[in-house]
Amino acid sequence: MKRLTLGILLVFFCVLLPVSAQKSLQKSDCYECALPKAPGQKQNFADVVLRKGTIFYNVTSVKREVNQRYSQVMQFVRIRYLRDSLCADTLLNIYDIKELRISGLGPNGGTLATPIYPAREFYYTKEPLPLPTSFFELTPVITFSGSDKSQRSIGYGVPAFGGEALLAPFGSLLGERLSLGIGGGIFFDADRHRFPVFGHLRFNFKGTTKLSQSITLLPSPCKFRLRDTNNKVFFSFEPASKVPFSGDYIEKNGFETLDSTVFIGYQSIYESSDFRPFLFIEGGPIFNGNFEGAGANPSVNSGDYSQYFIGAGAGAPLPFADFITVSIGYRYMRLHVRTPCPSCPPTQSGDPNSFFFLNTNTTHNAIFKLGWRLQW
Q1: How is 66-130 classified by DSSP, letter by letter?
Q2: pLDDT over threshold 90, residue 229
Q3: Could you read off the pLDDT of 143-189 as tens digits, one per residue?
Q4: Residue 366 and residue 144: Cα distance in Å, rounded?
Q5: Which of 287, 289, 291 is nearest to 307 (CA)?
Q6: DSSP secondary-structure letter at 274?
Q7: Pairing between β-strand 278-288 and β-strand 308-318 as defined by DSSP bridges
């Protein structure tokens, strides 16, 4: 008996509750743009009559939509209606609708038969603004080097931490996919700190830029001005409002009757893909901070001094947060540290430690960057 009871409860939670949740969701969607109600009505219904004679009964929601069809933007009405106790929906061209019949809103509480008119349309006249191609990045850096193989063990052999700033102010000087930047930073290896200065060339190998149209429908997609058969304003979902667009918009000319309480604004904009990965190469000299053994002099082989790095890698702004950039890569670094040279010939003072030897460490590193990004 206990197992039977447990089985019934399991069926309830696994089957009946999801079905109930689905019906609740359907009900919520079904009344997204609910119809106006006469005093005393809990919920109102309408019939949508098409010019070809088709009638949709038990309509619960009427919503404006703007979609592109056959390479042009057109106005539609999405209706939701009850069919066999379930919510159904369909998308209708606004010009295919003859009238909307709403119960309880007509004279003496009768049915209101009203046409539905397209919204007024406005087009932005200025050229679309280009997408930002200049950027500034501030990124912490972690460097993982290989084992220390220098002659006097001057390497660090542990992760080195630092930070870098990269500025690419040249916009699309090299085209839409190439960016040129300059940067600098600091990193710490063991108890030493150094300052790399570098050039950075970035290639965005994936992600397209396209010209699209931004559509704004104001003040609400649920707004309609309803009129009776004598073309007298009888009811509006919302109060009428003034034209919400600036003087940079011009209105589309036409001879059809329009709904003067609803406005659609069209503006051409450039859009790019959310995921925009890139490849990069970078390199430049490395300058020392103030630590023991920094610099080339004094040393018996100061002519060997040459600190620099070169590197390459890949990265991307995060698709869900493009103000954050993450990248990984390889970096070759050539570093120096001076150490005393007891085997070197003594100076005239007889002090064998007055001579130093310039030690070179070439490192192969994996790098990881994660930081903040600003575009303009």
Answers
A1: EEEETTEEEEEEEEEEEETTEEEEEEEEGGGEEEEEETT-SGGG--EEE---PEEEEEE-SPPPP
A2: no
A3: 998 766 666 667 766 789 999 999 999 998 998 899 999 999 999 98
A4: 5
A5: 287
A6: S
A7: antiparallel
Average per-residue pLDDT for the chain: 85
Structure tokens that stand for 171 in this block: 């916009």
CA distance to 11, 238, 254, 258, 372, per residue, from 116 (Å): 47, 15, 16, 9, 50
Closest CA to 101 of 44, 148, 177, 149: 44
CB 66 within 8 A of CB 90: no
The two structure tokens encoding residue 121: 């349309």
Closest CA to 323 of 272, 376, 374: 374
Strand order in the sheet with 112-114: 86-93, 72-83, 55-69, 46-50, 97-102, 112-114
pLDDT over 90 percentage in the chain: 56
Phi, psi dihedrals of residue 166, rounded to the nearest 5°: -130, 130
What's the pTM? Answer: 0.68
| Burial degree of 165 (CB within 10 A; 0-12, 13-18, 19+) | middle
Question: Which of these, 369, 336, 341, lies nearest to 355 by C-alpha position?
Answer: 341
Q: What is the pLDDT of residues 16-62, one digit of tens each?
A: 434 333 444 455 789 999 998 888 788 889 999 999 999 999 999 99
Instruction: Kindly state the tokens that stand for 200.
Output: 């950075």
Pairing of strands 225-227, 233-236: antiparallel
Contacts of 148 (CB under 8 A, 6+ apart): 154, 155, 156, 157, 361
pLDDT-based confidence at residue 14 (cuts at 50, 70, 90): very low
Do 23 and 33 contact (CB within 8 A), yes or no?
A: no
Q: Which two tokens stand for residue 302?
A: 């100061």
Residues near 19 by beta carbon (within 8 Å), at least 6 away in sequence: none
238 — phi, psi (to 5°)?
Answer: -140, 160
